Amino acid sequence: MEERRTFQHELLVHMRAALHCDGVCLLYGTCELPGSRMALVLKRYERSLGNAHFSIGDFSQAIAYNTQDLEIARMLGDRAGEGRAYANLGNAHWLLGDFSQAIAYYTQDLAIAKEVGDRAGEGRAYENLGCEHDSMGNFSQAIVYHTQDLEIAKEVGDRAGEGRAYGDLGCAHDSLGGFSQAIEHYTQCLAIARDVGDRAGEGKANGNLGNAHWLLGDFSQAI
Q: Helix, strand, or coil here: 98?
């Protein structure tokens, strides 16, 4: 783990240096690439730096780079890129515990996905909004979002996404005391995890099923 973190920090140093050099080229007009092309290169650096800082838990710095990514996407007129930047900003704010700001960013991501006709992106935004409302204890609203996520996952043929949506629905119903409904969703989640070979997902679904049966008083099934 320590070696991985060291590698990530070294990678960040090199990426920052590259970003600085490209930025200076763009500023002084010494780069051979056209301005729009250079902006695209910078945008990719910003997103990569944001993701790298996110992976090592430096969420405040991730927010700074993803904010720059968002600004460049706007400059380029890249609406899909804007949506991804909003999603990344939402993720970082969620992990910092700033749930209301995360919801605002996820809502922007959803609006853009609808605008550009990105159904998979819509599903991603619904999933994020559902999980955010779960975190805030708004389980009824979370169920609405998870249901929309599930419908889109089925539509686009995203089996892994379908499994996650069933798992999320199970957790939300579980939290509301709807253990029988939770068991139905966890069972679907388990079947899909087995279907796609997701052993970690299979283990999580089995654990959730055991807990739900226990809460129903069905102790033999829980075991």
A: coil
- Note the pLDDT of residue 57: 59
3-state secondary structure 194-216: HHHCCHHHHHHHHHHHHHHHHHC
CA dihedral angle for residue 10, residue 15, residue 20, residue 25, rounded to 10 degrees: 140
Query: Helices 159-175 & 139-156, crossing angle to 10 degrees?
Result: 160
Mean pLDDT of the chain: 80
Same-domain status, 177 and 193: yes
Spell out the residues 6+ positions from residue 180 whose beta carbon is closer than 8 angstroms to its own. 216
Write out the residue range of the structural domain in which residue 75 sits. Answer: 1-117
Q: What is the pLDDT of residues 170-191, one digit of tens each?
A: 999 999 999 999 999 999 999 9
Question: 72: Cβ–Cβ under 8 A, 6 or more apart, which residues?
Answer: 39, 42, 43, 46, 81
Question: Which of 92, 117, 142 represents a domain boundary (last residue)?
Answer: 117
